[in-house]
Amino acid sequence: MNKKLIILSLFLLSGISLAAQTKVVKTSYGFELQRNGKPYYIKGVGGDVNMEKIVAIGANSVRTWGVERAQEVLDEAQRNGLTVMLGLWLQHERHGFDYNNQEKVAKQLAYFKTVIDRFKNHPALLIWGVGNEVDLNYTNPNVWNAIQDIAKYIHQTDPNHPTTTVTAGLDSLEVAFITARCPDIDIYSINTYGDIGNVPNHIAKFGWNRPYMITEWGPNGHWESPQTKWGVSIEQNSTEKKEVYFNRYKNYIEKNSNTCLGSYAFLWGAKQEYTETWYGLFSKNNIPTEPIDALEEVFTGKALTNPAPTILNFQVDQQKATDNIELKSAGIFDANINIQLAENVSMEKANYHWRIIEESTDKKSGGDVEDAATEITGLIKKTSQKNLIKFRAPQNAGAYRLFVSVTYENKMAYANIPFKVIARGADEPQGKFIEFKYTDMNNFKE
After folding, report:
1. What is the domain class of 16-300 according to CATH?
2. CA separation (Å) from 84 to 47, 78, 97, 113, 175?
3. Which of 59, 100, 119, 190 lies at a 20 to 30 A Cα distance from 8?
4. Over the chain (446 residues), what is each successive 10-residue block's mean pLDDT?
5. What is the pTM of this model?
6. Strand-pair partners of 311
7. Same topology between domain 16-300 and domain 310-422
8. What CATH number should be reported for the domain whose range is 310-422?
């Protein structure tokens, strides 16, 4: 532990406040967040890894959902000149918590009082996030009373940090409940994806006359994306996501800075949620992906000189993702991806990685933990062209995805295409596809 951190820890343990004062200020044009008397617009990311990279792209704040690593995250944020929206993870009704059970609710409140007392003077603390998406699939509005009790305690004991609570999307009923039952909530926060464009107009229409934040945003959610005819969602590739991050920030966040105090892009890290790439801004091997370029551009206001690869097109069997691709089992097919690198950089300098993965069978809601889908190995044969492969369709009928990632200078572009394998009848003609036997799954021979 370095000397500065030792001194900081001693101050915190002594109870002496090192807190930076954060205030919501009403202005002639709307609202403004101020930190130590100066305007502070949140250019944030949701997640607490790779903090040096957060600084490098021009962001200034991180968001957590819980306090499991609060001390470590706050300290590291302080070392890197970042602030923290510290999340207090309230229990959810959909996970079995009963907000009519006064004993359990009181126990939860008592726990969070200790958390608030412990961290309220940390200099990296910016905002308290009281609950995340407690409205998802809920029926009992008493949860808002529990949120109010925590927010009220924060205001009683911590004059230096405002409060917020986060809903899953924006609904008039939740706005009404929070307005009526949570007077100690200073800022309304919304997790929103494809519907982000409706937030600026709807939040005022629904009756919220105070400031708000966008605390999760990014690509279209899997629940709001086009689907194949066998019912799986089609994921945007990384180039499409880059455009989405850029445009949504410029059009729906930055443009409304008179009432929107800032945002936290989702997800600064990697996560299996519907697929392994849908929401994460890093690969599972911790490689920065193409959408991070968009965040750097909007946060810094500068064009990048070393962008990630750009995807021009990607096809399986000369079909794109929206074509409801069906392949006969054990047939051999082609797949190709075309990319663009920075000016004057040879395509040969990029590295390609191809995988066939079963469609996930562990899909959940609200970001709950999911198991990774199963990769099927031994089916891919590289060719002399790095952007082209031959592959054998899996033998078992079912839903799969072909994933490809392209890496250059430690930046990654990626895409996947869902396809369905149809069982081949014993007497069915092979047609244009070459059939071969599965004597050895890892010995690819036509």
Report:
1. alpha beta
2. 10, 9, 27, 18, 25
3. 59
4. 51 62 96 98 98 98 98 98 98 97 98 98 98 97 98 98 98 98 98 98 97 98 98 98 98 98 98 98 98 98 94 97 97 96 83 97 92 96 93 97 97 98 76 40 45
5. 0.92
6. 339
7. no
8. 2.60.40.10
